[in-house]
Amino acid sequence: MYEKWIKILMKVDLFKNFEIDELNKMLMCIRPNIVHFKKKEYVTIAENKFNGIGIVVEGEVIVTKENAAGNRVIMAKLGQSDIFGEMMAFSEYDKWAATVIASTDCTVIFLPPEKIIGNCSNMCIGHTLLIRNMLSLVSKKALGLNRKVEYLAIKSIRRKISLYLLEQYRKFGKSTFMIHLKRNELAEFLNVSRPSLSRELIKLKDEGIIDFYRSSFKIIDVEALKTSK
């Protein structure tokens, strides 16, 4: 049942250090649900009953929340082998904290949380490793959410853009890179209007600090971007 996705699942952080046979046994024990979604279809809706940790095995999804003004804010864009909902697994809250929307046709595997953090009746060898990986994932997600709060707290649009581009620069380790967010998605991620985002990007380009074309960016002056406010 899961053979089609096994190579992708081997890349998921939740199954880090698993052997293929070990992962197959774990999947047969957990018995996750495989669900297909069409583009723009809701994968989860905030406040709906939590139905398991999701792993994207095909396509892309965006994780969104509404801010105090009722506007949508993109928390993350996830692709193949990315995971969502892991923060809920250790929570007593049984409802989705965010809405997840398919940005392309996609396939998601949902893992029942009680099969991950609960006692395994089959005494799977990899169960302890699975819990350890789960705790590591939750820690990483907490750090990522803290980073997102920092973005939202910054009032200057130019500063938000600068920090985001510098983060991508560190992530890719080079001055030229492609971001995975479309322009409107980047505006929602930074919680700014698209026209304001475009204006600031053009200013940074005119000042010779960056260059860009669609989703491709080049940082020309790293130091100027670091001090840009």
Task: Note the topology.
Elements: H1 6-9, H2 20-30, E1 33-37, E2 42-44, E3 53-58, E4 61-66, E5 72-78, E6 83-84, E7 99-102, E8 106-111, H3 113-117, H4 127-153, H5 157-172, E9 176-178, H6 183-190, H7 194-206, E10 210-213, E11 216-219, H8 222-226
Antiparallel strand pairs: 1-8, 2-7, 3-6, 3-8, 4-5, 4-7, 9-11, 10-11
Number of strands: 11
Structural class: alpha+beta
Rg, Å, rounded: 19 Å
If strands are numbered along the chain, what order do they take across the biggest sheet? 1-8-3-6
* Low-confidence sequence ranges: none
Strand % is 15-25%
Helix fraction, binned, reads: 25-40%
Q: What global shape is seen?
A: elongated
Distance between the termini: 53 Å
**Helices and strands, in N-to-C order?**
HHEEEEEEEEHHHEHHEEH
Quote the average pLDDT.
Answer: 89
Q: How many strands, which pairing sense, and closed or not: the largest β-sheet?
A: 4 strands, antiparallel
How many individual helices? 8
Characterization of the model:
- The structure is a single chain.
- With 229 residues, the chain is α+β, with helices and mostly antiparallel strands.
- Helix content is 39%, strand content 22%.
- The protein has 8 helices and 11 strands.
- It has a 4-stranded antiparallel beta sheet with strand order 1-8-3-6. A 4-stranded antiparallel beta sheet has the order 2-7-4-5. Strands 9-11-10 form a 3-stranded antiparallel beta sheet.
- It is elongated.
- The N and C termini lie far apart (53 Å).
